Amino acid sequence: MLEEHGADVLITDVYMPGKSGIELVQDLHRRGDAVKVIVMTAFHMHEGIDIFQMVKNYGVDGVLGKPIVLAELFEMIDGFFADSPS
After folding, report:
1. What is the domain range of residue 65?
2. Which pLDDT band holds residue 57 (cuts at 50, 70, 90)?
3. Which of 30, 60, 61, 76 maximizes the CB count within 10 A of its CB?
């Protein structure tokens, strides 16, 4: 769908059926997509692993904990494009 329609921002979960959000981010990087990626998760820590830090290491542009606070999501997205010409 991203190839067909394009996007400036992609929001995904870490844990999804079929393909994880991490695998999706890796695929986007391999393809050279310039889309900004926000990963969300309900688990800050999982089995002793800091999930927020782990996904940042994969080059995501933002991480949000669930439940999502819309003001935080909007602020993050606004920050991506703050320096962009209108």
Report:
1. 38-86
2. confident
3. 60
